[in-house]
Amino acid sequence: MQHQYGPYDGQPFLGPDDLFPEPKVMQFIMMHGQDALDAMEQIDGDDERDYIQQLIDAGLLERTEDEEGGGKLRLTPKMLRGLEHRAFLEIFENLQKGAKDGHRTDAAGRTNERTDGTKPYEFGDPLSEIDLAATMRNAVRRQPDGPKLPININLNDFELHQTEGSADCATVVLIDQSGSMMRYGRFHQAKRVALGMAAMVRRMFPQDSIDYAGFYSLADPIHEHELPLVMPKPVTIRDYQVRLRVPMDQARRQMDRLPLHFTNLQLGLRTARQILARKGAANKQVFIITDGQPTAHVEPNAAGEGEMLYLLYPPDERTSDITLREAVRCQQAGIRLASFALIEDYWGMDWVSFIDQMTRLTRGISYYCTSNDLSSTVIESYLTGRKKKSFIG
To answer: What is the DSSP string of 272-300?
Structure first.
């Protein structure tokens, strides 16, 4: 590899924030998803179109190819990293002071933290944890004629710090995509925390894994590169009472004709459980971000072939029971459930009792917060919940 050097022009070196578009552009994409990219395509102003071309030239946006030689705008991996970087910085700037590990840093996180106390060295222990002061004291006490130089240290003198280790953890963030998540900026905040967690895990906990899934009338895994563009499902029927039953295979084939804005937490939990079944991590957990009681579920067809999808509003006890059974299956599979209930709608707080019941049945944890507090609540739960006491040696 050859390098060429030239005179320094006095311009400051580019930092991470200088490599990505303005925060307003990234927020616009986060809030409106694919509609934002479509709107950027329709801009007529020369300055605006030049700016979009600059984003393309910088490798932040690209055009898909079609038969006519044009194509739609889409995000590049570089833009995805920029969105994650911005979300990561915003979240850690807003964390409450004193939260464990809750600080802004560009350094890689440590996998072990020292606690009180020491232990004798044993073969195989990491030498990086040697307590030099305790080791020297042992060597001095061992000398029969009192302290004198040089001090001879043998293997039995070594003392090591006790450490609080952090085991590897596989997490699925389960995001509610029902129609009500559009209100109060809930879905924007859910995407923001999901992207921030991706950056945090990659930077601070590389031994961990994080995956995503969304649940609405159905449920699907969400790939990381899709996160900035996913949106809640629009409300298509507003009847006071809904009682629909559709075969699952038909529901998948004809999604354009299906009301998608219901809340199928049962299918979401099943999807998360299937994702985690493929992970070999010591700890597994599901973070559920939701704003209402389940209004959809699936159950076996009476004929014994396939499954039926039920869309039931107002919420039905049958849906709650089947969803709770799936939550218990997750708990029996060794999966920790953490629920984050968004509670701006104080007039509709009856559904909170469902979260309480699920938390008790699965021995999980639950938080009740507004969308503005969601990011700090989720991140603090992740940082504290992934740690366990494990003494080296």
So the answer is: HHHHHHT---SEEEEEEEESS---EEEEE
